[in-house]
Fold:
Amino acid sequence: MPSPADEAGPDPVREPWALPAGDVLCALGVELVAGLSEEEAAHRLELDGPNRLREERPRGAGRILVDQLRSLVVALLAAAAVLSFLFGGPGEGAAILVVVVINTLIGFATELRAVRSMDALRALGAVQTRVRRAGRDRILPAEEVVAGDILVLEGGDVVVADARLVQASRLQADESTFTGESAPVAKDAQPVEDGERIDRRSDMLFQGTSLTRGSAEGVVVATGMQTELGRIYTLTEEAESEATPLEKRLDQLARRLMGVTLAIAAMVIVSGLLTGKPLFLMVETGIALAVATIPEGLPIVATIALARGLWRMSRQNALINRISAVETLGATSVICTDKTGTLTENRMRVARVVLDDGAVEVRHPDDVSGGAFARAERDVDTQSEPLLLRALEIGVLCNNAGLGEEPDGADAVGDPLEIALLAAGARAGLRRNALEEGRPRLDEVAFDSASKRMATYQRADSGVDVLVKGAPEAVLAACTHVLGAGGPRALDDAARAAWLARTLALAEEGLRMLAVAARHTASPTEEAYRDLALVGLFALVDPPRLDVPAAIEACRAAGIRVLMLTGDHPATAGAIARSVGLADPAESPVQLGETLVAADRLAPAERDRLRNTVIFARVQPEEKLDLVRLHQEAGEVVGMIGDGVNDAPALKQADIGIAMGRRGTQVAREAADMILTDDAFPSIVAAVREGRGIFRNIRAFVFYLLSCNLSEVLLVGAASAIDAPLPILPLQILFLNLVSDVFPALALGMGEAPPGTLAEPPRPAGEGILTRRDAFGIAGYGATITASVLGLFLLCLGPLELGQERAVTTAFLCLSFAQLWHVFNLRERGTSLFRSEITANRHVWFALATCTLLLLAAVYVSPVARVLALERPAPLEWALLLAGSAVPVLAGQIAHAWTRGRPPR
Structure:
């Protein structure tokens, strides 16, 4: 054994699965019966570090706050505040800074709450394990396990490190969250060949998996990031974390606004200076234009609208990791999903018992059409079916699982396949404890992956019954007879071939086949696997979730392609795909993962073929990652659904990763953007609808904000061009953008998704928040509002001779109310001015009432009026400004009637 002073420690063992167990123990300097000494274990722990995956530093409050300040809109507002302090006055600069603070605090509070929700979900209890140290077994925290430790494991234990098996008895491991296999994997201590794939390393246990049955002793060969789990976690870290489509589009919009702002301000300032106007006046005008151009309410409204979407999703059992990911599913055009536990229940059950005199259907507990067993819809009494009763007895007695006491099997322990056999027997009134009272078990031949069989010796009235279950081909090879209704009869080659053909036909339906046989002998020492009489076949199924077919059909109607990426057998994958309505394998052949190569090595035709493939089987983590990237390169917005460690890299690479919250692994949940707390596929359909509704709302309030702000820009620019006084002052613009802009826009952002949302195709991947048609609409409405307000301003200055201050007040109020009424121009196609989703939205009416009260306060509350430089309007001025504010909404209704469609959104 290495000395604790040996700073280098033991060298890592290369491909331990290909070496005899004794050689691995020797290389790690440990004996099976003694284990490591405490001193040596402490030394190795110091050298290699704790047995845990590398943890990402959580986003603290400071980091979240800094992220809020990185917005381009915030940067533009800060620049405007600096200019206001330099050339204007402290009031204007302070007011702009207040806007920055309000925007930052709202975004900070919302995202901090989302981060804390995720932290609470990730808080998992510490795992402990049984380790042999200094000749005795101890229970230790998983983090203290080191290379060379001897793990002592039993069925139900979680494997905390990669270990090479030294001894194994009836051992099976659940690797469904690691390799994608739905059935437990048999394990033994015999070495395998060099270079074997992970799913074929039968002498290895991997961190993150669990034992379903048996017992084992193994030597730890890798811990922490050196394990296979750590390798996959590294892939997850290396996968690019894509910004969501909404984040990209809002960033593009902000950049364009910055360009427009600088260009307009520069033109106005330069033209004014060239005509001899004072520098201070031109800077003040430039600030007014900048403030008018920037939609100060956009970040606030977008954050609140998304936060409301997050709240809605949480009510539908979906927890959002990143707030902007709420809308991403609305743009998703491809969803890649695992099979086990996502499309299926991850729960084996017996579907059929095939006997020599025909098959017997095993009804599901939820089936209320009749009894537990049936032949061609005829209920079966097991007491009158001796062959069926015998097959069920073998399934119950040749079994090491425990069914438990809960009716739904929630407390069952052991191999899911054996649990399914116990459940089928229980429905016929057969319980192992009761059966073993008269026929106790004398011995057992443990399941062996080489023989693919298991046998038990049960005492009988006059001797011993040998009961066998296993793979049909293995059991049939040991059978010489078949048990029929009239008793045993010889099993010749033709009959054996017929049974094998029957097995293959059922396997192609996605059913897992198991044969049971028996023999009566005089002694429990006789060979088990000879001269057996075949009793029958069990056909088991991992049933598809009942709510999945409708959800897949809803995705198809919404223009979303659903792809299956599973590590399971091709026949099983194809059968499940057919049963849930995903695809017919005859029309869409199953693609094996091991035949895939990196996307950059594929010919164009091969890429197209893979993009059109629906079912992928035997897929490894790297291959899932490549398939996600393949679709992203084609411009698709990809959603990835998974629950296992093997799904984590693809979950992070996808535009939105969706993990299962109940059975999902910690690695999968950390990599995902959204977590389904109920593990229900239909919740994804609800998320798609919610995402599309969110984007529709975002487009509506962005359209509203920009058309309002454009009217302010055109108003200031036009007045400067004709050498007129500013019809609205910078601080007044800021007040408008915080009051009359934000509240109606927020009301639009809180609207419900209209009927028919899922009947529309996904948005094109490259489509921005606003389309070209939207741009024309924004320009038209902005110009209409500008013309109405500027005309009234010039009327007040000229013919009415109201003076500049009263004219500015009239223009300010006219502009404010025109923007408020403009919200009614945003109704959907086929609706009227008085009956639409706008008028049905109670938030809109609340916003209009609130804004009206705030505008009245601005002119009638003296301190506020003084800050904003406003006068109290006379009745004539009220009549003029209200009439002028109605012009844009009347023009909008004319545009509706002329185009016979909805306005640009």
Notes: The CA atoms of residues 461 and 637 lie 67 Å apart. The chain is about 45% helix and 15% strand.
